[in-house]
Amino acid sequence: MAGRALARDGASLDEALDQLGQTSRAVTGGEPAFDDIRALSMAWSESTLAYLHQLSCEDPLTGLASLAHIRSRLSELYRGQLGRDAAGIEETHALVVMEIPEERPGHGADQFTRAMRLSRLGDAARTVFSGTETIGRSGTNRVVVVVDRDAQLGRRVALVRTLLGMADHPTRIWIEGLPSTDRAAAALLDELCRT
Fold first, then answer.
1. Quick one: which of 12, 19, 22 has its CA closest to 45?
2. Whole-number Å distance between alpha carbons of 12 and 72
3. Rounded to two decimals, what is the model's pTM?
4. Angle of helix 111-128 relative to helix 153-164, nearest 10 degrees?
5. What is the pLDDT along the chain (195 residues), one digit of tens a residue?
6. What is the Cα–Cα distance from 80 to 96, expressed in whole angstroms?
């Protein structure tokens, strides 16, 4: 039981064992028994594994994919283009970027309100891009969608713009071309998170 509680509270196994040792010395005057060490270690590891198995690539508050997941998806696309004579990824895919404005100091929305606004952007994107597109969060004020660059892309972006035209905050939407290399795409994502 103690091992589970300590793991849930974020204590490392080393910290948990130190606490067990301190408690044992205070109560019995000696080191903890092997069975006690084993029980604490097993409970700690089971709790830690349960936590790790619940991790997701989605932000639980907004339902948007994490930046790490967007990077992974782009890397998959770049790897898929290697050795092919087909068009490069800069011709076959793009990012649709949706941005809510940065708040002025002292006039900003709280973190929860901003997360809900990003969630609404994600919902609008899912309404229009309902296939295999990856929709995720990029920084504190942007949502990005990894899309196929096809004849319908302009219309889809216009539809998202129309859906978001009724929002309580202005939203900027644009198509961002992808560079020719995976490394440059990672730098682009970093830049989209910063600015």
1. 12
2. 29
3. 0.69
4. 140
5. 788 888 777 788 988 899 999 999 999 999 999 999 999 999 988 888 777 666 678 887 888 998 889 999 999 999 887 666 556 888 889 999 999 887 654 555 677 888 888 999 999 999 999 999 999 999 888 999 999 999 999 999 999 999 998 777 789 999 999 998 899 999 999 999 886
6. 21
